[in-house]
Specification:
The chain is of the alpha/beta class and 177 residues long. The strands form 3 sheets. Strands 1-3-6-9-12 form a 5-stranded parallel β-sheet. A 5-stranded mixed β-sheet has the order 5-8-11-13-14, with no helix packed on it. Strands 2-4-7-10 form a 4-stranded parallel β-sheet, with no helix packed on it. Helix 1 runs antiparallel to helix 3 and helix 3 packs antiparallel against helix 4. The longest helix is centred in the middle third of the chain and has 15 residues. The chain is globular, with a radius of gyration of 16 Å.
């Protein structure tokens, strides 16, 4: 995933909520489905510059305090991120693709405590993926493009494109087109 300019990331994130202009655009900028994503973008932007890292932690802690959303600034996140409900969500993945939807209570991270953030111990999420509420995706696995991880599923193995993972532990099925 190449580096996408900050303004294009924010624009794509806003467009996931629908198009708007004028007063409706200003309302959307304060929308509870957009503000947490904006805080993620600000955290990651500031984290890339060592002089601004203390500010990045302020944005990150604001997301935890106000929205119950914990996101590592090391996770590369593509444009068009949508998090309809943030409470109890932990995003500790290596990479998240474009146009991904993540519902509440999701955990993306390592199987065991990984304070050093080892990329090989964390998941990679493809483009156009939907992750249902309460899903847990753990370990150095990958989720293929256009896949769905059902609510409350526990996924410990990689899944291909256009797949459905459902259950505890998750059973992987090919989605019908």
């Amino acid at each position: 995933m190449g580096k996408v300019p900050f303004r294009l990331l924010v624009r794509a994130d806003l467009l996931r909520l629908g198009s708007a202009s004028g007063w409706r655009l200003w309302c959307k900028l304060m929308h509870p489905r957009f503000v947490p994503v904006l805080l993620i973008r600000l955290t990651q932007f500031c984290y890339t510059y060592p002089i601004f890292r203390p500010i990045s932690f302020f944005f990150s802690m604001s997301n935890i305090f106000f929205f119950g959303l914990e996101v590592t600034p090391r996770c590369r996140i593509g444009e068009g991120l949508l998090i309809p409900h943030t409470s109890g969500t932990v995003i500790g993945a290596v990479e998240i693709g474009r146009n991904v939807t993540i519902f509440q209570g999701v955990t993306l991270g390592a199987k065991f405590a990984d304070i050093a953030f080892s990329p090989e111990a964390r998941p990679v999420i493809g483009d156009d993926v939907i992750i249902g509420s309460g899903a847990k995706i753990l370990g150095g696995i990958s989720i293929g493009n256009r896949s769905v991880v059902a609510s409350n599923s526990l996924l410990l193995e990689s899944i291909p494109e256009d797949a459905l993972a459902i259950g505890v532990p998750a059973i992987i099925e090919k989605r019908k087109s």
